[in-house]
Amino acid sequence: MRLALVSDTYTPQVNGVTTVVVRIANVLREFGHQVAVVAPRYPGHGDEECPGELRIPSASFPPYPAIRLSLPQFGAVARFLDAFEPEIVHVATEGPLGLTGRRYAVRRGIPLVTSYHTNFPQYARHYGAGTLEPLVWKWLRWFHRPAVLTQTPGEAVADELKRRGIGNPIVWGRGVDTTHFHPGRRSAGWRRWLAGGDDTAIVLHVGRLAPEKNIDVLIESWQAARERVGQRATFVLAGEGPETRRLLTHLPWVRQLGFLDRGRLADVYASADICVLPSNTETCGLVALEAMASGLAVVAANAGGFRESMTHGLSGVLVAADDATGFAAEILALVMAPRRRAEIAMAARAAAVTRDVASENLELLQQYAAAAGLSLSGAAPCAA
After folding, report:
1. Which of 59, 144, 157, 68 minimizes the C-alpha distance to 117?
2. Both 147 and 273 in a single domain?
3. How many C-beta atoms lie closer than 10 Å to residue 330's C-beta?
4. How much is the average pLDDT of 219-238?
5. The model's pTM
6. Are residues 281 and 144 part of one domain?
7. By the 8 A CB rule, do 174 and 154 touch?
8. Tens of pLDDT along 174-228?
9. Residue 231 is part of which domain span?
């Protein structure tokens, strides 16, 4: 197959969408297919594209400078993709480049696959624009209407899209690399640097530090938990975003690591003990699966993809999304009961293994083949 992959976020930016988009490109290449990528160009990472890539200049998004938006340069994208001659166009995001990819597929009559990773209607509420939510749904119906199929990583989200008449949703993209995210990466050096003592529990939050991640609940629950646990726990943030300064103002005692590449992130996961995720806007919650695969006890909001990834009390702990007191109580209980923490961590790892990427990768190829009207009988990874 010859597939064009268009995304408004890509390497070196670190987020869940980039992780899935890079995974798609790697899977296709592994199986010997041809991939062309259209993505933003990021400052400080060179002006030369890798083979098979078109990087479009981008500018920072003022409310959230870490996000880069590219102008929809249809002419440049069309020339690049015309030369590639794609059989399928996969638009992974609904931003300016996503619009360009959508327009190209519709104009050329090429099968279009879209993705729905980001819960924009809920984001509108978190950013004080709840009155725009009906317009957001209307926009999403228009954007995904031409798609042969729309990939989304959660069962509940797929059901919601069907109910609202958006695209042709199919669940895909909730697999986790259980070889990369593994308890064996636990590092005594990381633990000493983060906690200062082998008996100190490391409580971790990973993700964008932005309003849609339920930051108020994170602040309140960590303040309450620290008052109770004292020096028995260290609190660590991995990530950045528009709420970073406010978080550090309210939680001046946390260890703030900023954005981490996948290698260091896997080391930090495995070296921690508890992962706290109060976000109630996750379509999948890949961060929870990464933490579970790394052998952590996860305390997450009973919302979205989190509740599809863990069994409460067995492979994780689910708390009402806005219940800061409940989050604090569960953190305290896990810090004070290392045996229970270890039992949950073991069950979490076992649950994550059932979500390994291998079987999903084959499903991806089958979905693309069906979208393009092709056959993949006898498909096998390319030895190169």
Report:
1. 157
2. no
3. 21
4. 97
5. 0.86
6. no
7. yes
8. 899 999 999 999 999 999 999 877 789 999 999 989 888 999 999 999 999 999 9
9. 183-353
